[in-house]
From TrEMBL, chains A, B:
UniProt organism field: Polymorphospora rubra
Molecular-function annotations in GO: DNA binding
Segments forming a coiled coil: none
Keyword Transcription regulation set for record: yes
Keywords: DNA-binding, Transcription, Transcription regulation
HTH hxlR-type domain ranges (all copies): 24-122
Protein name in the entry: Transcriptional regulator
Lineage, broadest ranks: Bacteria, Bacillati, Actinomycetota, Actinomycetes, Micromonosporales
Cited Pfam families: HxlR (PF01638)
Amino acid sequence: MKLPSPCSDTEDYTARQWDTRAECEVRQVLDRIADKWSLLVLALLDRRTLRFTELRRSIDGVSPRMLTSTVRQLERDGLVERTVYPVVPPRVEYRLTPLGVSLHDMVQSLVTWTEEHQDEIAAARDEYDRKAAESAY
Amino acid sequence: MKLPSPCSDTEDYTARQWDTRAECEVRQVLDRIADKWSLLVLALLDRRTLRFTELRRSIDGVSPRMLTSTVRQLERDGLVERTVYPVVPPRVEYRLTPLGVSLHDMVQSLVTWTEEHQDEIAAARDEYDRKAAESAY
DNA sequence: CGGTATCCCTTTAGATACTG
DNA sequence: CAGTATCTAAAGGGATACCG
């Protein structure tokens, strides 16, 4: 995803001027946690060290290309630590950094919010779809 | 975005079994707040009612197609309320529902997390890029 | 004013074969 | 084992013209 972002020119998120820089920090974090596999990796590495193939087997449907790309981005952002052991066959281990743990905690509270409100959302959707269906006649 | 999701088969997010249903609630909420324009709309409607054109003018670069799609999804999820006044020319107003306010609060705490850790992330990236650059030689 | 409809392009992700 | 390379498919989003 690109441009616009909930970054304000001031310190206040609710300010009226919106930043459209791709560099916006909030947007970047959001893009990271919202991508298709990052959250799974973050959760699997919670209090646990896993190797590449272990991650791959634990995440149903991920291709080696996407898993590599995902862990590399997480590593680049300082959320995951990658350790290469110079042995044959190669052994590479992944674990969360303290920053990764912190983000995982943040995500947990989003999960909690979702659990608390999923019924409301579902009800809203049902009503919306029902009204849409009846006005189609 | 599609399939996999940080939904467990149990109540516990940290459980080991991962759900790959597109219906996962967490994934749906994440997809909503991570899309390109929803967060901007949510923030602009904070404590404020705005008309379609007002939103459009406030969000730099949004096309009518995307703005319509964005507010419709937010409305369907019960986050935004859309009120049509049967006058000519038409008048349509958007405002947050209590659920929308609640999600906006949740997002605010993500913003806060990001502000608190953006220096760490930036430092990690710099180091990663620096190492990548030097190992390229 | 508040949208829809249409077309097109870019980004993202999946499949698969291959390698140090 | 832990990836990389290449190709393809699909989703997301932009531009623009038009309509009730």
